[in-house]
Amino acid sequence: MRSLLATAGAVVALACAPAVQAGDKANRAEYPVFTGAYEPEDVDERGLWESFDEVERKVATSKDLIRDEGINQYMKDVLCRSVGDDRCNATRIYVVRNNAFNASMAPNGMMMVNSGLLLRMRNEAELASVLGHEFSHFEQRHSLQLFKRLRSGSDIASIVSVVVGVPLGAFFLLDVFSFNRDMEKEADVASADYLAASPYASRAAADIWVRLIDEDDARAEERNRRKRGRSTGWFASHPAPLARSEYLARATADHADDGDYGFERYGETMDPYLLTFFEDQLQRNDFAASKFILDQMGGDQWRPIHYVMQGELYRKRGLPRDLVTAEEAYRTAIEAGSTRPEAWRGLGLTLMRARNREQGAEALATYLELAPDAPDAPMMQMMIKGS
Amino acid sequence: MKTAKKLSLALATAAMAIAPAPAFAGWKRITTEATDVGKGAFVVTPQTEWSRWSRRPAKRGEIWTQDGFGLNMMHFIGQVGDGDTLFKDRKKKERPMPKVRGDMLVTDLAELFEASFSIEYDVTQFDIRAMEPSKLGSHDAIKMTYEFALPNDALTRVGEARLAKVDRQVYLVNFIAPELHYFDQSIEEVHVIMDTLQLN
Ligand SMILES: [Zn+2]
To answer: Between chains, do B124 and A223 touch, taking CB under 8 Å as contact?
Structure first.
């Protein structure tokens, strides 16, 4: 059930107001000099820019775009804190509701970030490092370099026509411009430099890629297929995540700073969205990886919302032993002060499925008291009466 | 960061334009007579003509359209038993489909549909607008109306699904269309079909 997204924006607008105090960490490096956003130079490049502008117009009207001002302002703030104010104003960030771990950067300054990426970040510093990585593709003109390698005019013309003609626009297009391994490494190293100059802890960057491998390992084990994260072939064009973590760890060790992780700020901003983003992930019938994501997110500081998510995770798989775990999770969330109606809804449905109809009906009645206008209210009324 | 391989509705529309039938997929005209659907799982009497796609979404399932899948699409899937999947489990290792379980509540059927449909069509966003008790044929059912999004698609697409469990077997009839014009164009007939069909 994902009816709460619309109201989430208002909460976030309040939550993300205070900015980080700059200059509060030891060993803070300087940003490299920024030469400004690149302007297209010849007719081919202008054609390329225009085609990306066309794609950007499509992205801006797409149905899966998250338009809440709060979260969009927050993303912009984090990018600015990560790469510095003069850089961040050269880009536009679009947050897309899509459970896949993905972000992308176009040569005209359009950055796309999936909700699935936000679900997998543990703190603001990790997000800052990913945004810095994407930004450096832009600053180092990686897509332009790839474009120039296509050399002949007919190639260029066909690419431009493909870019504009495809209804699914950006996804196909960004595949065409998938960055190669050297460029990825260059972007990783640049993002480590940004982080060193930012208020954020440089160490935050290295962990993300190890977790990505571990998540896929968990998925592979559940689906009984070969693990692939440690080989070089995964993400064809990208460095293997393990190698990535290693050189990022080395790069950030050079900046042995004590910067900010922005843990609480990230939690406050994302809390209203987490359940929605996690439900999108649960729809993928991807239990082991979803559990891994939740465990990483909660770490050793589980908040009430995490227990609601745990309840959903187990209730939706629905094995008899899962119902026991789900019930406990919802009850923990409620005891810990969760006010999310979904906690009572989940508890009620779990109890009913476990044939504890009377208590289940009580929990559903509480759900309806908290959310009388819920879209499933008529159905839940029926469930209560039927018991 | 990754290549998105998608069987999206939008691509399906481009590849499977409704007339004339391309070599790899056949279309069969459905007339306004009582018709066996899903290898006999349903008997359906439409009010207008529809086209049935030769490729089945499930063992005992069919997909119909009037103007092409991107514009309107109706699923009939029936006799799905304990341990089976709603849609064919074509890619078990990459995108496994959730399975029907005997102890599922009627609301669990709605969630089963939501996940199965999202996996089948690579839906990025699925939001329920309403969920209420209803009928499928003469049987008790859950009815859900919802809106959903495909990757980078501007259209608001909406759907109405009804699911019932009869003798431990699950039945689904689902209709989807863009909200603008196409949903309203067909929904009255869809309601009549859902109300009057017979489950076997
Ligand atoms: Zn990259």
So the answer is: no
Name the residue facing A376 among B96, B105, B131 (closest C-beta). Answer: B131
Same domain, residue pair A18 and A140: yes
In whole angstroms, what is the distance from residue B143 CA to residue B190 CA?
13
In this predicted complex, what is the ipTM?
Answer: 0.88
In this structure, is residue B27 part of a structural domain?
Answer: no
Q: Do A157 and A120 fall into the same domain?
A: yes
The pLDDT of residue A152 is 53
> Within 13 Å of residue B131, how many CA atoms lie on the same side as its CB?
24
Contacts of B107 in chain A (CB under 8 A): 349, 376, 379, 383
Same domain, A251 and A275: no
Res A173: pLDDT: 41
- Look at phi and psi of residue A62 and say left if phi exceeds 0, alpha if psi is from -120 to 50, else beta: beta
Count structural domains, chain A: 2
What is the whole-number distance in angstroms between the Cα of residue A179 and the centre of ligand 1?
6
Last residue of a domain, one of A255, A285, A312: A255
What's the pLDDT tens digit per position in A253-267?
A: 776 677 899 999 999
The alpha helices in chain A, defined as continuous H runs, are 5-15, 43-61, 69-83, 85-88, 115-120, 124-139, 142-149, 153-165, 170-176, 181-197, 207-223, 241-254, 263-282, 287-298, 304-317, 320-335, 341-353, 357-370, 377-385
Q: Considering only alpha carbons, which residue of chain A is nearest residue B147?
A: A63
Residue A260 lies in a domain: no
Nearest alpha carbon to residue B89 among A279, A285, A317, A221? A285
Model pLDDT for residues B54-90, shown as the tens digit of each residue? 999 999 999 999 999 999 999 999 999 999 999 999 9
Q: How much distance in Å is there from the Cα of A20 to the middle of ligand 1?
A: 26
What is the total count of domains within chain B?
1
Ligand 1 center to A239 CA (angstroms): 10
- Measured between beta carbons, the chain A residues lying within 8 angstroms of B125 are 63-64, 97, 280
Report yes or no on A263 lying in a domain. no
Q: Does B167 touch chain A (CB under 8 A)?
A: no
Domain end, chosen from A255, A287, A303, is at A255
Hey, is the C-beta of A168 within 8 angstroms of any chain B C-beta?
yes
The CATH number for B72's domain is 3.40.1000.10
